[in-house]
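Hey team,

Sharing the Beta-xylanase run so nobody has to redo it. Sequence (332 residues) first:
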Amino acid sequence: NTVMNQSLAGAFKDDFLIGAAVNAHTVLSQRDLLLEHYNSLTAENEMKFESVHPAEDTYTFEKADRIARFSRDNGMKLRGHTLVWHNQTPDWVFEDEGGGAANRELLLARMKSHIDTVVKRYRDAIYCWDVVNEAVADEGEELLRPSKWLLGIGDDYIAQAFRFAHEADPDALLFYNDYNECNPIKRDKIYGLVKSLLEQGAPIHGIGLQAHWNLKDPALDDIRAAIERYASLGLKLQITEMDVSVFEFNDRRTDLAAPTAEMMRLQEERYGQFFRLFREYRGVLTSVTFWGAADDYTWLDDFPVRGRKNWPLLFDTNRQPKGAFREVVGLR
Ligand code: XIL
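Structure output:
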């Protein structure tokens, strides 16, 4: 049947790139699936600060290089993820020699040398970077998350990161990436942050919408509103970490060995709606990346409930297309 022979990336080749997050294991275990259905990759963890720069004078690029090589050898695009984040960043970054808190000057120097080294190394491999990840605080909190970057450097740490990245690779597309991006309050904060970066002349080219969604949230109208609002800034948008959990965020059930038929039906419906919406914004939306390639491996197996299986992607645990895949590619 033609739908089953359809490649996911092929179905959207005139619209946007189709990506998957990979790690050093999954480029091996999911190799055939990746080559058949995806034309873009993101390193799930291997290019994060703690992975590539565990100590001040130590860079460890072996796994990141393997992913860069895999993408190059197979003619796939590669997104860089991520340079400045409050998570998965080693403690040494924020400490001075005496074990106290590093001051602004030291932190900026470390940020610059990290960005410079990593971005230059992958200049030929990576076409766009998530320069700053998740800097905005969630609903009800301040504008910016009180991370060690913010507390140590001050409000301008975000603009500085973009400047350093641009100096290291003037050709790279530079993105601000965040989650809960469709929540009206957070959406407005993200919009405000990026608008002010643009007004300061910071070299920023796009906004990444992580898209960690579920069967109920966010509502389609809120997704549309977020896309419209971000696009009004004149930037490119990318869906950077998409998955559709079968559990709502506060559902901590652990008793399911397989998704229910109702979950699968809703997931198909949701995925269909999402991709119909995405296609309306082709041109503005330049890439849709899933946070994983198939349900045999997903970070949601450990988050937010440790060890609980989830089934959030378009391919099942045997890496076969799910109903949601048919819904998505059958649109053509
Ligand atoms: C996650 C990875 O998938 C996990 O393997 C890791 O343990 C924690 O980080 N937002 C992001 C991603 O920007 O980097 C996160 O990735 C998921 C949430």
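The longest helix spans residues 261-280.

Ping me if you want the raw files.
A.
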